From TrEMBL:
<dbReference type="InterPro" id="IPR011335">
    <property type="entry name" value="Restrct_endonuc-II-like"/>
</dbReference>
<dbReference type="Pfam" id="PF13338">
    <property type="entry name" value="AbiEi_4"/>
</dbReference>
<dbReference type="InterPro" id="IPR007569">
    <property type="entry name" value="DUF559"/>
</dbReference>
<feature type="domain" description="AbiEi antitoxin N-terminal">
    <location>
        <begin position="6"/>
        <end position="42"/>
    </location>
</feature>
<dbReference type="Pfam" id="PF04480">
    <property type="entry name" value="DUF559"/>
</dbReference>
<protein>
    <submittedName>
        <fullName>Uncharacterized protein DUF559</fullName>
    </submittedName>
</protein>
<feature type="domain" description="DUF559">
    <location>
        <begin position="196"/>
        <end position="293"/>
    </location>
</feature>
<dbReference type="InterPro" id="IPR025159">
    <property type="entry name" value="AbiEi_N"/>
</dbReference>
Length: 299
């Protein structure tokens, strides 16, 4: 047995992390393992889980180390699972793993352990047991809250890596858990309610700020295009605010129509602003400032 080559290959596959049992399987004795720890060649991360000094403790190594510590009955859930599926850009500060209710293991060191039955809800991805994509999205949305939950759900749907029906099934499987009400609202937005809610928010934002001179659903004749219904129009300033829902709702034909209409409006002398549900949720003050600046500049 070529112990060193086997160890090197294992560490490459597992982001520099391995268990004591894996080291023994590669041919190391317990004494040899303890020697590497004493010399600082390996660092203890979790009980019987080590990091090679030739590797850094990056996000992937952190996930893998926790997974190896908790064992094959543990499943990565929540935002950590969404990140492992590449549906989030950054991993969460705390990784959440579901274990069977009979497991006697406690949360510690940036790892939250929850007891949950996940019958049929698991897959092994790059050596880590993780919930399927749809369940990861729903669970992450419940964990992250309305604004960030909307971002991950919109992104997952836009990428076509999950469908709305997939998300609904995953939601039904976790009804009653924390965040279920938030997920239900997000699913309603995803089903088409985001645009109408965004319009209501934009109208309320303008009214509450005392902004006048605007009309909702204003019809204008645009040369070279025809009649266009403008979401929010400031006729005197010739400023139009187009209100979008989620990116997921804009398919290619709609995207092309919007561009043709926007180009025609610009050529006719209108300033076109675009706001969406995400902007109105995350930064309404910024949206208001953009609109008032545009109308003031045109005055």
């Amino acid at each position: 047995m070529d112990t060193e080559n086997e160890l090197a290959a294992l560490l490459r596959r597992q982001d520099g992390v391995l268990t004591r049992a894996q080291a023994v399987a590669c041919g190391l004795t317990r004494r040899a393992i303890d020697h590497r720890l004493a010399r600082g060649l390996w660092t203890l991360l979790w009980p019987r889980v080590y990091l090679s000094s030739a590797h850094t403790l990056g996000p992937r190594a952190r996930v893998r180390a926790a997974s190896l510590w908790l064992g094959p009955t543990a499943t990565l859930i929540g935002a950590g699972a969404a990140w492992w599926w590449k549906l989030l850009d950054e991993p969460p500060a705390v990784l959440r793993f579901a274990v069977p209710p009979t497991r006697r293991v406690r949360s510690r060191g940036g790892v939250e352990v929850v007891r949950r039955v996940l019958v049929g809800w698991g897959a092994t991805v790059s050596g880590v047991r993780v919930v399927p994509k749809a369940y990861a999205v729903v669970d992450a949305a419940a964990e992250l809250g309305l604004r960030r939950g909307a971002e991950i759900m919109d992104r997952a749907l836009l990428s076509r890596r999950v469908t709305l029906d997939d998300l609904r099934r995953a939601h039904r499987s976790r009804l009653g858990r924390p965040g279920s009400a938030t997920v239900a609202r997000l699913l309603a937005l995803a089903a088409g309610g985001a645009r109408s809610e965004a319009e209501r928010r934009a109208h309320r934002l303008l009214r509450d700020a005392g902004v006048t001179g605007w009309l909702a659903d204003h019809r204008v004749a645009v040369p070279g295009y025809g009649v266009a219904v403008l979401d929010i129009a400031f006729p005197a300033a010739r400023v139009v605010v187009e209100v979008d829902g989620w990116a997921y709702h804009r398919d290619l034909p709609a995207f092309r129509r919007d561009h043709a209409r926007q180009n025609a409006l610009v050529l006719a002398g209108w300033t076109v602003l675009r706001v969406d549900w995400h902007a109105l949720e995350a930064d309404p003050a910024g949206v208001l400032a953009t609109i008032t600046s545009a109308t003031a500049a045109a005055a």
